[in-house]
């Protein structure tokens, strides 16, 4: 698979504040809820910071003076204050947590919407596992870093402000002494956060690569066993798994080195307050109650700093996840509807390529000056070697890509002038390996027209020669299918896919080797169903077995990006050129 540019490189170039600022924009719809949440945060912080002040006052004015009734009343007041604080903290956690989960839900929705809108060219160079990692793992990392800790972090931040105000108002000198370590803590936090973010970014990238490998190997386990490659796959997975382990260990190592540093500064500040505060108490410059309150405040003072510092470090993992998420959200949608695009009118079925050239990259052209005309109701067969450009022609009709030069027109209308949805809803496609989804048989048939009735679904199934088989299933049309249509056989899945195409009643039909990889008996049913499907429709058929296209109105031999020969089967046989040689070889092989 072609890999795109490393998201790590791009993420390194994105400023951290820009990422955070963009994330905060997701909170704009909750402007009315934020003040209420902040009010609860301030109320909870106030109840926590007022406790030591009251306790210190009680020591000096109640306990040392033996005023026990007053102490009892104060204890009741403290209980009321702390209960009020518990209620406020519970409310802030619920409100902020609920808000965060709605923001994260919107982030997931934006990611999925973006993935659905990206052109096919993006998926040519991207891995499904890495995209799933961004949708699931990265959003979950953001949830763990912010969704579960932001309520606590906000509460601690306001508590810290309240504690600082209380300490400075009680004794300016001792308060300043307690805050001497704050600049050191800020420097330490900044140093570790930059280190941690780089480590966590690598960890997010390696988990994306691991997810991509896992998805690829699980989906191809049958091929791996058939080609005796399982041991090599295990070794490759082990290598990626080891890289992910190392990245996470290095990230955790940063955190494990950070927390003891904060604890050391906490102990240092506490020792300084105890020494100086004890000296002031002994000399009579400060009362015992004030010293006690200060010690309680010091313990409370460093708890918010520890929590905020730990949150700041953990947030680096969340910011690394946000970097990858926003990189995907910023992926340009290179194929869009034109600003003045109109709805495609009901298609008659004329398809015209006018000197079309196309390349998946700037340096390599896949099609060169291709011109063709398919009249309404005609069957056009595309034959030629693998890689000649047959599928590219089909992709341009569906406008999965835009032509580099020339134009693709349907009924005289350039496909770039109409909306993609109005164009594609009138084109049916049956592939060699059609994908069925987890769901009922009826839901799979109605995939392109989900609002159709049960009677219409059954009529489409009858046209596709699959109604009888479906009714023999245990729950009939309500039978649940597993991933990729299990347990249906290849031929049965093909018939369901034909019913899906019948249901949308397209005027243009695309068949990509629709009868390969199935048994002879089922092939007869498929051929009969396809014959019904082709009636009164313009069709493009990619075929490797030339015996299936002898009745085509046009046979186009595609070779090296150009139409080398064109004509009916009989005309091309008479020319004794490329097509005649291919047909003779296949006829001899049969």
Automatic annotation (TrEMBL):
Record lineage: Bacteria, Bacillati, Cyanobacteriota, Cyanophyceae, Oculatellales
Residues annotated as domain ABC transporter: 351-585
Residues that span the membrane, as ranges: 36-59, 71-89, 153-170, 176-196, 279-298
Keyword hit for Transmembrane: yes
A GO molecular-function annotation: ABC-type oligopeptide transporter activity
ABC transmembrane type-1 domain span: 36-317
Localization annotation: Cell membrane
Organism for this UniProt entry: Thermoleptolyngbya sichuanensis A183
Name listed for the protein in its UniProt record: ABC transporter ATP-binding protein
Domain of life: Bacteria
InterPro entries per the UniProt record, alphabetical: AAA+_ATPase, ABC1_TM_dom, ABC1_TM_sf, ABC_transporter-like_ATP-bd, ABC_transporter-like_CS, P-loop_NTPase, Type_1_exporter
Pfam families (UniProt xref): ABC_membrane, ABC_tran
Primary location recorded for the protein, binned into one broad class: membrane
Its membrane topology: Multi-pass membrane protein
Gene3D superfamilies: ABC transporter type 1, transmembrane domain (1.20.1560.10), P-loop containing nucleotide triphosphate hydrolases (3.40.50.300)
């Amino acid at each position: 698979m072609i890999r795109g540019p490393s998201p790590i490189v791009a993420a390194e170039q994105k400023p951290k504040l820009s990422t955070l600022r963009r994330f905060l924009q997701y909170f704009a719809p909750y402007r009315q809820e934020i003040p209420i949440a902040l009010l609860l945060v301030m109320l909870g912080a106030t109840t926590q910071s007022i406790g030591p002040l009251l306790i210190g006052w009680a020591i000096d004015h109640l306990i040392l003076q033996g005023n026990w009734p007053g102490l009892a009343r104060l204890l009741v007041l403290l209980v009321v204050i702390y209960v009020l604080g518990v209620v406020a903290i519970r409310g802030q956690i619920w409100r902020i947590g609920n808000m965060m989960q709605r923001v994260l839900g919107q982030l997931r929705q934006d990611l999925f919407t973006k993935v659905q809108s990206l052109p096919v060219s993006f998926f040519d160079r991207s891995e499904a596992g890495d995209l799933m990692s961004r949708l699931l793992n990265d959003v979950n990392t953001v949830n763990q870093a912010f969704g579960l800790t932001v309520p606590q972090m906000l509460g601690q931040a306001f508590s810290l402000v309240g504690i600082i105000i209380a300490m400075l108002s009680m004794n300016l000198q001792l308060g300043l002494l307690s805050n001497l370590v704050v600049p050191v803590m800020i420097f330490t936090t900044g140093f570790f956060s930059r280190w941690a973010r780089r480590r966590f970014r690598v960890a997010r990238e390696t988990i994306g690569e691991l997810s991509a490998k896992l998805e690829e190997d699980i989906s191809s386990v049958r091929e791996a066993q058939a080609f005796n490659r399982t041991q090599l796959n295990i070794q490759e997975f082990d290598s990626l798994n080891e890289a992910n382990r190392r990245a996470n260990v290095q990230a955790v190592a940063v955190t494990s080195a950070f927390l003891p540093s904060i604890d050391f500064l906490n102990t240092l500040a506490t020792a300084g307050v105890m020494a100086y505060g004890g000296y002031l108490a002994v000399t009579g410059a400060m009362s015992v109650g004030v010293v006690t309150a200060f010690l309680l405040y010091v313990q409370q003072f460093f708890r918010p700093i520890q929590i905020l510092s730990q949150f700041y470090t953990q947030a680096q993992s969340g910011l690394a996840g946000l970097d990858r998420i926003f990189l995907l959200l910023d992926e340009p949608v290179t194929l869009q509807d034109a600003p003045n695009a109109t709805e495609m009118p009901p298609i008659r079925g004329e398809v015209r390529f006018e000197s079309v050239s196309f390349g998946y990259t700037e340096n390599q052209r896949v099609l060169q000056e291709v011109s063709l005309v398919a009249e309404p109701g005609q069957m056009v067969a595309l034959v030629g070697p693998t890689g000649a450009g047959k599928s590219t022609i089909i992709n341009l009709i569906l406008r999965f890509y835009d032509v580099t030069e020339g134009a693709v027109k349907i009924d005289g209308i350039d496909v770039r002038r109409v909306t993609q949805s109005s164009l594609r809803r009138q084109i049916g496609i049956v592939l060699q390996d059609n994908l069925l989804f987890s769901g009922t048989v009826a839901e799979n048939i109605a995939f392109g027209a989900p609002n159709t009735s049960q009677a219409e679904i059954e009529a489409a199934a009858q046209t596709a020669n699959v109604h009888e088989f479906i009714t023999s299933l245990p729950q009939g049309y309500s039978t649940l299918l597993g991933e990729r249509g299990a347990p249906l056989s290849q031929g049965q899945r093909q018939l369901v896919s034909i019913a899906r195409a019948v249901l949308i009643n397209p005027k243009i039909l695309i068949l990509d080797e629709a009868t390969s990889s199935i048994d002879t008996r089922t092939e007869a049913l498929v051929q009969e169903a396809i014959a019904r499907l082709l009636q009164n429709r313009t069709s493009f058929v990619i075929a490797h077995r030339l015996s299936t296209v002898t009745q085509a109105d046009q046979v186009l031999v595609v070779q090296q990006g150009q139409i080398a020969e064109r004509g009916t089967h009989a005309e091309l046989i008479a020319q004794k050129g490329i097509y005649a040689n291919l047909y003779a070889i296949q006829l001899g092989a049969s």
